[in-house]
Amino acid sequence: MSAKKNNTAKKLFVIRTFQSLSQIETVLRHIAKKNNVPLQLSILGQITTNKAITKKELEKIIADIKQQLSAVLGKQFQFGYFYNPEIGTLFIAGHLTPTFLNKIDERELASLPTGLIGIFKGLGINTEEINSYLNELKNDNYCLIIRGESSVLNTIEPMLNV
Questions:
Q1: Distance from C-alpha of 116 to C-alpha of 127, rounded to nearest angstrom
Q2: Please, what is the average pLDDT of the chain?
């Protein structure tokens, strides 16, 4: 019996924070010009910290965010939102949406007190970086999460700092 080596490329994640969705759009356009490899993108950001917001106000904010995201992610993308007790109401858009919104005891995984930490740990992110990302989210910044093969991520990582 012979053993076969599995040469499947390993998928990894790169996360960067940005102050605005327009900054993310600029970076992604720059990457698209230089690198013609399709990437799996997700964007995580805060909708509001106001618990007393009406459903109508929330729907308007979400519609505005979706409009902005369509410029970044294209016309078709997965989108959802959830309430995190430490940060407020957040949205997730892109490939990781089902992961963040996966139901556990009728609550979204990301809405559980340690849900975001668990998701980031599952992506292979260390605790220090997780705390940094959570602080960035609390300060109204956005997390761009890119999944890809290590060789592709190594190529685009320098472009994320533009």
A1: 11
A2: 87
3 in any annotated domain: no
Q: 2 in a domain, yes or no?
A: no
Reported as a pLDDT band with limits 50, 70 and 90, residue 1 is: very low
- Tell me whether residue 6 is in a domain: no
Residue with tokens 């430490």: 86
pTM of the prediction? 0.88
CA-wise closest residue to 87 among 70, 107, 110, 103: 110
Judge whether 4 lies within some domain: no
What does the pLDDT look like over 96-118, one tens digit per residue? 999 999 998 889 999 998 999 99
Query: What is the count of structural domains for the chain?
Result: 1
Q: Is the pLDDT of residue 34 over 90?
A: no
Print the domain residue range for 64: 12-161
